[in-house]
Fold these 2 entries.
Entry 1:
Amino acid sequence: VEMRVVDFALCAMDEVVNQAAKARYMFGGQGRVGLVARMPGGLWSGSAAQHSQSLEAWFAHVPGLVVVAPATAQDNHSLLEAAIGCGDPVIYLEHKELWGMQGEVSEERGVIGKASILRDGKDVTLVTWSRTVHEALAAAEKAPMSVEVIDLRTLWPWDREMVLASAARTRRLLVVHEAVQAAGFGAEIAATVAEELGIRVKRLGAPRIPVGYAKPLEDEARITAERILSSLNTFL
């Protein structure tokens, strides 16, 4: 199912949250809803307040939903195949600014719940997903410390094992997402790592404001490599 933009999915929340997400549980596993709901989202070319939201935390909060957010052409292909074969309802979040991305694509099938280390590092673990993966890699190249960049790829289930192992080595964690920072999914990751490891954790997300139409206003909500670098530098 193509929702056109994630914002429009709000018109179908009963069907997604109360019906599709709960069907397998309510019928004792005797039936599943093999739904893949493609929901483009995020900031894009002056799309303004009602067409620019990042709502992954809403869906990750609902038992029964799988939440996927690819950042590369390869993952967009392989994780979509994995989502179709999942058997459970999948919220497939595609960032609009990644629509034009290009790259080599193999027939390799993706794995739901498996993150990817895109850059090795020893001083800070930076966890992110979707469009901000590319901003994170750019920031890591400029950072005065060694930054390990993890693309989460799947938000639910998320790869706790990989994130905890990396954070245990670096002893510092920064979680970055384009969604509003307050009550964002980054808080779930940060809280888990803090509870398990007791290390320094930070979050970076958008301010709690609607996205503006004018570019200067839209840019206030944009997470850039420069903002990520500024957050990384607080670990010094």
Entry 2:
Amino acid sequence: MKQPELSIIVPVYNVESYLEACLDGILQTDLTNREVIIVDDGSTDTSAQIINRYKQRYPGITVYRKENGGLSDARNYGLERATGKYVIFPDSDDLVHAGAFDKMIAEAERQHADIVVADYYEFSEEGKHYRKDRYDKAIIEKPLITEEERLHPLFLIDVSFAVWNKLYRRSFLSENNLTFLKGFWFEDLDFVFTAFYRAGKVVKVNEMLIGYRQRSGSIMKNINNKILDKVTIMEKLGVFLDKEGKIEKYRRLYDILFIKMCFSVLYACIMNRNDKGKSKELIGKVLENPYLKKILRNYLSRYKELKTKEKYYF
């Protein structure tokens, strides 16, 4: 049996309001020599019934149902069963534009790339107020081949840490034992950073092919202790770079990214209107993070040193 060209892995959990739009976008593409793997991660709404309807219309779809284990677990479950040359992980509430996968595969084949990044835009939960000005900032005109070329756009957040707008060569993921970190929110941070670090070549399709739905119930709008996972994963990335002997090489860029991620958590807490007490507690925990305090102390010390030199110079 011929190997499928692409495995499309769709993790599903309680997305009855958005699932049909997502599947319609995926299934409007040519499914010849492609496999669609839907992993129902223990949905308790009508998502299972919706999946069944699509399975009847498209018998080639493969459906798995499992106990709820979280997004990472569902993605890993699908990845373990995927057989395609390439793999992609669209979120079940997003939109995939016609021809999106074709364009990404064509670029991967043309450039012999391990990862292909596509631009995306954001839109509201109701599907209105499209914001086509929001997409990956970096217009990458040439392949990213060296380690520095691959990592700099991530450190500067010119290329997003999202998993769902990227196509991966499956053999590359397998050879590097790349799977999703279970039990954490913001698992994309760990997966994408490690993938970019290990990749031989990363290329970009400078066209908005994916629509990212901003939901009212998103992680950043529902504040609890799990929002601190963003900081925890940043600490894990620091340990990873240290083990690779690269932390000093990228210290300044890593520190800047660490600060940005901490500040994004602080911003989410400040903007939260539902539980001010919890927000205050979480803000305190972020500000007490030992590494953040160390970074800020070091930069403040350097700033004072520069101001002193400036004073005596004039």
